[in-house]
Design brief:
5-stranded antiparallel beta sheet, 12 strands, 29 helices, 3-stranded antiparallel beta sheet, single chain, alpha+beta
Length: 736
């Protein structure tokens, strides 16, 4: 039987990536990029090849191998695994880049910020303090080649080859024999008399001074160059001079050096260092401290390095939400950091958290998610939206908090393109109908109409035919004037979705009724819409060949037309959502502040039998948009402002042409509402003239006689169906 010896390198769970080793490492070790065989996760592998006649170097490498395995500190290069054979030594660590290569790459990319350098030096000094004060060890090799940078931009101290005990046991410092490393030795080491008084940390602090000089000025040509600080920041120069002083006795302890640099106005006294220190101790912080920290974090992220945000801040944010009950405060910084991620990383790290957040009952969490949906909606796929997001979002339509109902309505603009047939055309329309008819907040009813106009193109053809005309017609009867304006604008925004018959027989009669509305803003928009629809009808009448460009006359089968007219056309009002007819009798006077910015403040009081209370207090939700919103989007609340100079009340306006205005406003007697200041018109004529429609294939020429006969037959069938149907449900009204 044959036995084959196992190859330890082949069985090692890590492998080298086949490429040349990274440079910049004077000494026995070669640094390679590697990966874990099982997962492919990146690592760094330090390789030492045993060579004949280099026993002293081999012993140094083995000592470093042992130090790597036993020393654990956040600022010291993290050991993962190792392999020791007769031919080589492998030390596997976290994936890092030599500091020299990192600095060169950053300079080529635009330079390294002082914030990053301040935190990097803080980490190296912290590691030295741990070694000398806690472990009584002298590093003996502090230089550019002994410092490495991980993917988050964290500086790690390595190069443990020449470390020795500060207590004298185990012999003195090992001999380096490498000129590139010996140039960093302090001048007192050349004095063999032993009469120089020094501290155990003196030599390492001198080498730290050399490192600081090289970080700001490049490779150190000779020791004499240390006398000129060069590009070292002024706030750091005094502390640097202490490090490279000729008297080793006055060189500060690493802990004291940190304390000096962290003093107010010091080089390491900045928001970036403070943020990092908090993150290192976040697990032991009080909940109130964490809340305050995350609230203030967003303001600082723009100034922080991208790699730091992705690889250090993001994991802490995810952990804080998952296990720390941080709640809604993590959302703003979370989405800010998310901008640095690729689409794949966003799907893996952010979206699962977002989906889980939507199931939260925390109102603050829900409203912030809705407010910031624009930042992550592009990463949500349709199945996720319909099965995991929308079922939770629709609860907001029923929430007692008006702010949540408002944001839920607005969020539909982003969700609608991703909703399936049932959610969009059935579930959402059910909630919109209830909000438009029964919500006690006039601005919410207004914004429901606004949203419906903007998502109308996503609805199915049958839903559009059944809902849009009835919904916008209902809005024109709303006691809240901006809702009536929104109804008019809704017709205009969806003009290309109506047939010529609908324009003439359903829409224009509604708009004509608004020409005597007590609010001038409503009348103005109604006149514009009427002119637009009439222009479209007139152009087709003059030139029937334009039908394919402008619209179509209804020429479907008679049975289908009759069924649509008598059964489904007004289904929006037939459903038991309530009716504004009962509300109109008890609506109190409402005052609208039409500011020059084109924004609408909510009525001071809206009271009716369906609305919950006639004394609902004004709140932060008191300003909502109506006019001019179809192209400009949602507007923010505005404070009330006085009307512009020269603005006249409707009762002062001369509607009679050449007659003087002292006859009064003929519309003033049409309503008991107090007159309000009209807002300046923010819509140009070009928004209303020349509206275009989608192309539809229809029969272009019909005999006038045939159309008249068909109309009479349809009216007769409608009358028969109404008689057979019986009385209508209480609270519903049929639109003509």
């Amino acid at each position: 039987m044959w036995f084959f010896a196992r190859d330890p390198v082949r069985d090692f769970p890590f492998e080298l990536i086949p490429e040349p080793p990274e440079g910049g490492l004077p000494g026995p070790w070669a640094l390679h990029r590697g990966r874990k065989k099982a997962t492919g996760s990146p690592v760094s592998i330090f390789v030492y090849d045993v060579k004949p006649g280099a026993e002293e170097q081999t012993q140094v490498a083995k000592a470093a191998f042992k130090r790597f395995k036993t020393l654990r500190h956040p600022n010291i290069l993290a050991y993962i695994d190792g392999l020791e054979t007769e031919k080589c030594l492998h030390v596997v660590t976290e994936a890092v880049t030599p500091l020299g290569i990192y600095l060169k790459a950053r300079v080529e990319a635009g330079g390294l910020k002082e914030l990053e350098i301040s935190w990097g030096l803080h980490q190296i000094v912290k590691a030295l303090s741990f070694l000398v004060n806690d472990c009584s060890l002298i590093h003996n090799n502090v230089c550019m080649a002994a410092v490495f940078v991980d993917r988050a931009g964290e500086w790690k101290l390595g190069g443990l080859d020449y470390m020795y005990s500060a207590q004298g046991n185990g012999g003195g410092p090992p001999r380096k024999g490498i000129p590139e490393l010996e140039q960093y030795d302090p001048p007192e080491l050349a004095d063999s008399s032993g009469r120089v008084v020094r501290e155990k940390w003196s030599a390492d602090m001198w080498r730290l001074g050399c490192l600081i000089w090289e970080v700001f000025n490049g490779p150190l040509p000779r020791a004499a160059a240390l006398r000129n600080p060069g590009k070292i920041p002024k706030t750091l120069v005094p502390h640097y001079c202490e490090l490279v002083g000729a008297n080793p006795k006055v060189r500060p302890n690493p802990a004291r050096f940190l304390q000096n640099c962290r003093a107010p106005g010091g080089f390491m006294s900045n928001r970036f260092v403070e943020t990092n220190l908090f993150l290192e101790e976040i697990q032991i912080k009080e909940p109130a401290e964490k809340q305050k920290f995350f609230q203030e974090l967003s303001k600082s992220l723009d100034a922080f390095p991208e790699d730091f945000c992705r690889h250090k801040v993001l994991p802490q944010l995810l952990t804080a939400f998952e296990f720390g009950n941080a709640g809604a405060v993590v959302l703003t910084p979370l989405f800010k950091v998310g901008k640095f991620l690729s689409a794949e990383e966003y799907q893996q790290k952010i979206i699962p958290v977002v989906v889980k957040m939507f199931s939260s009952t925390d109102r603050a969490m829900r409203i912030r998610l809705l407010q910031q949906m624009e930042q992550f909606i592009q990463y949500l796929d349709e199945p996720t939206v319909n099965t995991q997001i929308f079922p939770h979002v629709v609860h907001g339509f029923l929430d007692t908090n008006p702010a949540i109902r408002e944001q839920t309505v607005k969020s539909m603009l982003l969700l609608a393109p991703k909703l399936n047939e049932a959610n969009l055309n059935v579930e959402l329309m059910k909630h919109f109908a209830r909000l438009q008819a029964k919500d006690e907040q006039g601005p919410i009813r207004c914004n429901t109409t606004v949203c419906l106009g903007k998502i109308g193109s996503y609805l199915s053809a049958s839903t559009r035919h059944r809902v849009l005309t009835s919904a916008f017609s209902r809005a024109t009867r709303d006691p809240f004037a901006p809702s009536r304006v929104a109804g008019v604008l809704g017709f205009a925004a969806t003009h290309n979705l109506y047939s010529m018959n609908d324009c003439a027989q359903k829409i224009l009669p509604v708009l004509c009724g608004l020409t005597v509305d007590p609010e001038k803003s409503v009348r103005d928009q109604a006149f514009k819409a009427i002119r637009s629809f009439l222009s479209k009808l007139e152009s087709v009448s003059e030139d029937p060949t334009q039908l394919e460009e402008v619209g179509h006359w209804e020429t479907q089968e008679e049975d289908k037309d009759t069924a649509e007219d008598s059964s489904t056309a007004d289904r929006w009002d037939d459903e038991d959502w309530g009716s504004l007819e009962q509300e109109a009798e008890s609506v109190l006077a409402q005052q609208d502040d039409w500011s020059t910015g084109g924004q609408v403040s909510r009525a001071s009081q809206v009271s009716n039998s369906d609305h919950k209370s006639s004394k609902s207090p004004e709140s932060d939700w008191s300003s909502w948009e109506a006019e001019g919103s179809w192209e400009q989007g949602w507007q923010e609340p505005s404070s009330q402002e006085p009307p512009p100079d020269g603005t006249r009340l409707a009762s002062e306006y001369n509607w009679g042409g050449p007659e003087s205005s002292d006859k009064g406003d003929p519309f003033a007697t049409l309503s008991a509402r107090p007159s309000t200041q009209p807002r300046p018109d923010s819509w140009g004529e070009d928004n209303w003239e020349g509206l275009e429609t989608d192309s539809r294939q229809v029969k272009a020429e019909l005999a006038r006689k045939k159309r008249e006969e068909r109309r009479r037959e349809m009216e007769a069938k409608r009358a028969e169906r109404k008689v057979a149907k019986g009385p209508m449900k209480l609270g519903a009204r049929k639109l003509d």
